[in-house]
TrEMBL record:
<keyword id="KW-0032">Aminotransferase</keyword>
<dbReference type="GO" id="GO:0019265">
    <property type="term" value="P:glycine biosynthetic process, by transamination of glyoxylate"/>
</dbReference>
<feature type="domain" description="Aminotransferase class V">
    <location>
        <begin position="28"/>
        <end position="328"/>
    </location>
</feature>
<dbReference type="InterPro" id="IPR015421">
    <property type="entry name" value="PyrdxlP-dep_Trfase_major"/>
</dbReference>
<dbReference type="InterPro" id="IPR020578">
    <property type="entry name" value="Aminotrans_V_PyrdxlP_BS"/>
</dbReference>
<dbReference type="InterPro" id="IPR000192">
    <property type="entry name" value="Aminotrans_V_dom"/>
</dbReference>
<dbReference type="GO" id="GO:0008453">
    <property type="term" value="F:alanine-glyoxylate transaminase activity"/>
</dbReference>
<dbReference type="InterPro" id="IPR015422">
    <property type="entry name" value="PyrdxlP-dep_Trfase_small"/>
</dbReference>
<feature type="modified residue" description="N6-(pyridoxal phosphate)lysine">
    <location>
        <position position="194"/>
    </location>
</feature>
<feature type="binding site">
    <location>
        <position position="337"/>
    </location>
    <ligand>
        <name>substrate</name>
    </ligand>
</feature>
<dbReference type="InterPro" id="IPR024169">
    <property type="entry name" value="SP_NH2Trfase/AEP_transaminase"/>
</dbReference>
<dbReference type="InterPro" id="IPR015424">
    <property type="entry name" value="PyrdxlP-dep_Trfase"/>
</dbReference>
<keyword id="KW-0663">Pyridoxal phosphate</keyword>
<keyword id="KW-0808">Transferase</keyword>
<dbReference type="Pfam" id="PF00266">
    <property type="entry name" value="Aminotran_5"/>
</dbReference>
<comment type="similarity">
    <text>Belongs to the class-V pyridoxal-phosphate-dependent aminotransferase family.</text>
</comment>
<protein>
    <submittedName>
        <fullName>Aminotransferase</fullName>
    </submittedName>
</protein>
Length: 383
């Protein structure tokens, strides 16, 4: 049967029907009063989601564009920075920082392990001359399913007093609590195809007062990603360039849905689905890849033994039309990843756990009695 694909990957995530229908409307002028009303409304909604009174700017581009914008708008060539690297995306920010001539100190952990906040704290405390200008890290490391302790690491940055925090929250914003103002985070980057529940194409950069102070002395090259242009435009409820207009229609609809559900309910739902997925996985005899207690509420990484992870993914896709994510780089064939981010409900969790048990049984790799994993997931969902 065609057109029954169920996305259970960390992005793009499933899109609600009413959000998709909003995108089918005819585009309007991006300099029109009607569009300005949408920009004004979504800007306030974005501040609600980020739990901030700071500026939240919208860029037509991917989450990588948002992160690069956060870096190049606050730093200067030769600046000393700390980059956390415990996965594909932490690795990417090291590459981006080096590409712009920054002096990078890497805090590294093995893939599947969280970054150690004490390492950041030690390096920052040793910097008595206050030469370190920023700490750059990924909150939810999509490639491995690890959630890093952003609150604790950011606290160490605040104690330094000079450095700012630039956080990739692409798969954590809209999935778990990230109170920007309460924690004092300086830059938060995110993307539309994750917790926002809309297709890829928009990214968001939230900038604190300290981030704008750093911007005043930033000398890295920028044009399309020059956030001063976006700030000037947003103050007029506009955009400096031609934006993805129909994605703004979707953004308004999805953020309205999220406001109706409420932040705490959103966070509770993601935590509940994370637990149901993880407990079901363990009950059927599979091993979680991520260190215990550091799993992301957006995605669960599974490390099967005695079977190639791609074989499992292929079986589930062919038999059930459920798409799971594979491992990246050296983890290809060694892990698969189940997304439970955004527009996901209990039925989706039950479906993916059931499909996984069926597929393992079919290829002769199911260790536990069939149905044990599903029973465990259901018990979590019913409590």
């Amino acid at each position: 049967m065609q057109d029954k694909l169920n996305l259970m990957i960390p992005g793009p995530t499933p899109v609600p029907e009413n959000v998709l229908s909003c995108m089918s409307k005819h585009p309007i002028g991006h300099r029109s009063g009607e569009f300005q009303e949408i920009v004004q409304k979504t800007t306030k909604q974005l501040q609600w989601l980020h739990q901030t009174t700071a500026d939240v700017l919208t860029i037509t581009g991917s989450g990588t564009a948002a992160m690069e914008a956060g870096i190049i708008n606050t730093l200067s060539k030769g600046d000393q920075v700390i980059c956390g690297d415990n996965g594909k995306f932490g690795e990417r920010w090291v590459k981006v920082a080096k590409a712009y001539g920054l002096n990078v100190k890497v805090v590294k952990s093995d893939w599947g392990q969280p970054l150690d906040p004490n390492e950041f704290k030690m390096i920052l405390e040793e910097d008595t001359e206050k030469k370190i200008k920023a700490v750059i890290l990924t909150h939810s490391e999509t490639s491995t399913g690890v959630i890093n302790d952003l609150k604790e690491i950011n606290s160490a940055v605040k104690s330094h007093s000079r450095a700012i925090t630039i956080a990739d929250c692409v798969t954590s914003l809209g999935a778990c609590n990230i109170p920007m103002d309460e924690w004092g985070i300086d830059v938060i980057a995110s993307g539309s195809q994750k917790g926002y529940m809309i297709p890829p194409g928009l990214s968001f950069v939230a900038m604190s007062k300290r981030a704008w102070e750093a911007n005043a002395s930033s000398d890295l090259p920028k044009f399309y990603l020059d956030l001063k242009q976006y700030l000037k435009a947003i103050n007029k409820n506009s955009n400096p360039f031609t934006p993805a207009i129909n994605l703004y229609f979707a953004l308004e609809a999805s953020l309205t849905m999220m406001q109706k559900e409420g932040l705490n309910n959103i966070f509770t739902r993601h935590a509940r689905h994370q637990k149901a997925t993880q407990e079901g996985i363990k009950a059927m005899g599979l091993k979680l890849f991520t260190k215990e207690g550091y799993g992301s509420p957006a995605i669960t990484a599974v490390q099967p033994e005695h079977v190639d992870a791609e074989t499992i993914r292929k079986s589930i896709k062919n038999d059930f039309d459920i798409l799971l994510a594979g491992g990246q780089d050296h983890l290809k064939g060694k892990i698969f990843r189940i997304g439970h981010l955004g527009f996901v409900n209990d039925r989706d969790i039950i479906s993916v756990i059931s499909a996984l048990e069926c597929s393992l049984d079919k290829i002769g790799k199911l260790k536990a009695p069939i149905g044990k994993g599903l029973a465990k997931s259901i018990s979590v969902l019913n409590n």
